[in-house]
Q: What sequence folds into this?
């Protein structure tokens, strides 16, 4: 057969092959329900988040998103890093994780130290810290705390910021009260009348005290002083260079959050495999108390500019951070909406 005849013979075959390549190229990726693309090879992008605490029902949105495959459908292979970490954002900056689950006040402190981080979604719409008093206490307003003894885990973390915020709202300072470091023994300290009040988490200590038959009243930080609570924080350069990945992670997490709110009983069952020795009844009670904190008064995962501004004014007034320039760079809603 001549070369010309061989070429003529191959033309139909080559046309078919070209057509197949074009079809395969068009089908090389598939679009998931979350709007993310996943390679037909099944390759997922590795992502991790530092949660800063031991496994707990409070992380149910992450467990549900993982268990139901929302992260995988978004093209992500997500690792949840548990464990108590004293400087989550420092760990993030050191490259240990892609995201961390930290509060807005922690983020602004980090930014004041020239760590270029950004909050891409605030999961806890309310700051879950309260001052707790016995139901029969003569303390009926924050002003009544003057001269009283308040039990606190210590001068660190969200409970300390929450305490300062409530005193600030009442125009009181630490010198106007007696703050007694008690570690995480708030329940016993209040029940045994070792202190007049304790500062703890709205979805934890009040529930334990009520369960123990000790009625209480609470002064919730979110009712007095707006603060930005736990959210998804990443490096600014990660957001700039991998905006699609960041959006995919945020959207999958929010999908898990919506599932928890819609089906809390199922969320508790899913969380059992992530939380060793979890008490289902206790976890259910905590989850029911946490859902309103996640929901807040607005859109799930949303960063509210007025809350950021109010928190910044408070932190500056307390000399926790210096005056902030370009506050809008500290947070974004581009991955939420």
A:
């Amino acid at each position: 057969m001549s070369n010309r005849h061989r070429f003529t013979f191959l033309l139909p075959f080559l046309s078919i092959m070209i057509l197949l390549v074009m079809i395969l190229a068009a089908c090389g990726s598939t679009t998931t329900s979350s709007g993310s693309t996943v390679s037909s090879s099944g390759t997922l992008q590795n992502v991790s988040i530092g949660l800063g605490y031991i496994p707990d029902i409070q992380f149910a949105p992450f467990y549900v998103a993982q268990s139901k495959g929302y992260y995988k459908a978004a093209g992500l292979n997500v690792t949840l890093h548990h464990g108590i970490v004293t400087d989550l954002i420092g760990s993030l900056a050191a490259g240990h994780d892609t995201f961390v689950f930290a509060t807005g006040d922690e983020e602004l402190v980090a930014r004041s130290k020239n760590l270029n981080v950004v909050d891409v979604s605030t999961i806890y719409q309310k700051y879950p810290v309260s001052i707790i008093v016995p139901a029969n206490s003569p303390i009926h307003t924050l002003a009544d705390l003057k001269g009283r003894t308040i039990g606190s885990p210590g001068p660190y973390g969200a409970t300390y910021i929450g305490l300062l915020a409530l005193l600030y709202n009442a125009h009181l300072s630490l010198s106007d009260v007696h703050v007694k470091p008690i570690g995480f023994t708030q329940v016993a300290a209040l029940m045994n009348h070792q202190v007049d009040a304790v500062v703890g988490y709205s979805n934890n200590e009040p529930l334990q005290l009520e369960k123990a038959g000790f009625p209480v009243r609470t002064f919730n930080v979110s009712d007095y002083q707006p603060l930005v609570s736990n959210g998804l924080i990443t490096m600014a350069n990660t957001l700039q260079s991998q905006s699609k990945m960041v959006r995919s992670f945020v959207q999958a997490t929010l999908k898990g959050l919506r599932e928890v709110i819609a089906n809390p009983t199922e969320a508790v069952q899913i969380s059992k495999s992530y939380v060793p020795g979890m008490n289902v009844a206790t976890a259910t009670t905590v989850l029911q108390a946490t859902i309103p904190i996640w929901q807040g008064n607005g859109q799930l995962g949303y960063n509210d500019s007025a809350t950021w501004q109010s928190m910044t004014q408070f932190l500056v007034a307390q000399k926790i951070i210096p005056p902030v320039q370009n506050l809008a760079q500290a947070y974004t809603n581009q991955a939420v909406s």
